[in-house]
Design goal:
By secondary structure, the chain is mainly α. The chain is about 55% helix and about 0% strand. The two termini are about 30 Å apart.
Length: about 400
């Protein structure tokens, strides 16, 4: 401590010796029942976000299972409610944890090893699975047309690359909404890298970049949890009404208005309306996510494994005709399918699966990168010092 930080009188009374509290009496600095064990070194994961990610991946798997039996109006109603918010919630969380992304070598490495490599590996795997598992020899392997759910990795790659832009421009949320609106009336964008979804879901990612911990505190209040019940009930009624009246592509955000045979002006209207509903239901979903450690909290760290793997089973069910079973036309069959989908994706998020597939899902790839990219170590010291001075909330998970 420098002299300028000391009290005016350097003579300070020594502190009293530390005394152990009397038996049965808690220390005045610790509440009774509080865990006083020393914190483990390293960053502590937030149970709220791990719980949210696990519950979201369960909804993804259940939604994909329901998507194979949409002949029942009740199932499609629930499917529409889930599809209104489960991917927006995932995208928003991804944006929240991308707040400090820049084009530094460390972040580029993580982007390549954690997004690009899994996409390439699983895109090839799913293409080969369709060629041989579905007896489709004409199916070609391509990296420009994402298979099924792998569009999210393409989108995450693009979104993170553009993060410095959204952290620089004024009114980034308004700009991203304008981009989404323009995409909805641009049928010439094409299917490469599923750019319609990349652009139309962009506002959810940008909103995540703008959020701070105190914003999530707002939805954790008891009043919000209570209000979310009638909101979800109203959403279910609207979804039931929309089944014969609205195409699902509006919720998928994968098509321009003209490609659906709708007037061009419906694109901006539907994009803004569906994104607004998505934000509302996402807030209601977060309101019911537990804040404490649960039995499934640890699984939140492995949701990428469940996301990448569960579609193999969905596609296998399609290839073998399993979803055509008569039992799935009855409520008990639908319930059994729902429980099965939730159980399977839960297993896929566990530690044994993570250890077995970490080499392709989260490879370290030290061999692929230079040890000292971007110059000598002394050249990077000012930047590293600046990063250490950043507020804690800007540190990625």
């Amino acid at each position: 401590m420098t002299n300028s930080q000391r009290p005016y009188d350097d003579r300070r009374t020594p502190l009293p010796p530390v005394q152990s509290p009397a038996s049965g009496v808690p220390s005045p600095r610790v509440r009774a029942g509080q865990d006083v064990r020393p914190a483990k070194p390293g960053k502590q994961r937030d149970a709220f976000f791990d719980n949210a990610k696990y519950l979201a991946i369960v909804l993804v798997a259940v939604g994909h299972a329901w998507g194979q039996i949409l002949d029942d109006r009740t199932v499609e109603t629930l499917y529409r409610v889930v599809y209104t918010f489960h991917m927006p919630a995932f995208v928003l969380i991804s944006g929240y944890f991308s707040r400090n992304f820049d084009l530094s070598p460390r972040h580029v490495k993580r982007l390549v090893s954690g997004v690009v490599v899994p996409y390439v590996v699983f895109e090839i795997a799913y293409s080969l699975f369709q060629r041989y598992g579905n007896d489709d020899p004409d199916h070609s392997v391509t990296l420009l047309d994402p298979t099924y759910h792998l569009w999210f990795l393409c989108a995450l790659f693009v979104w993170r690359l553009t993060t410095p832009l959204w952290r620089t421009v004024r009114n980034p949320l308004a700009v991203s909404l304008a981009v989404a609106v323009l995409a909805s009336v641009s049928p010439l964008i094409g299917d490469d890298l599923d750019m319609q979804r990349v652009l139309q879901f962009l506002p959810c990612f940008v909103l995540g970049l703008l959020l701070r911990p105190e914003h999530f505190q707002l939805v954790r209040r008891r009043s919000v949890r209570i209000l979310s019940v009638p909101v979800f009930a109203a959403a279910t009624v609207v979804a039931w009404w929309s089944v014969p009246r609205m195409r699902l592509n509006w919720l998928y955000h994968n098509t321009a208005a003209q490609e659906m045979g709708a007037p061009w002006w419906t694109g901006p209207v539907m994009v803004l309306a569906t994104l607004g509903c998505s934000l509302l239901l996402t807030a209601c979903f977060f309101a019911w996510v537990p804040r404490r450690h649960m039995w499934f909290t640890a699984l939140g760290a492995g949701t990428i494994y469940g996301y990448l793997l569960h579609a193999f089973l969905v596609k296998a069910g399609n290839y073998t005709g399993w979803f055509d079973q008569p039992a799935l036309a009855h409520p008990l069959g639908v319930l059994a399918l729902t429980v099965c989908a939730a159980a399977v994706v839960t297993v896929l998020c566990t530690k044994p699966v993570q250890r077995a597939l970490r080499c392709v899902v989260e490879p370290k790839m030290e061999w692929a990168f230079r040890d000292n990219p971007g110059g000598s170590a002394p050249d990077r010291r000012p930047r590293e010092a600046a990063e250490r001075r950043e507020p804690a909330e800007k540190v990625s998970a």
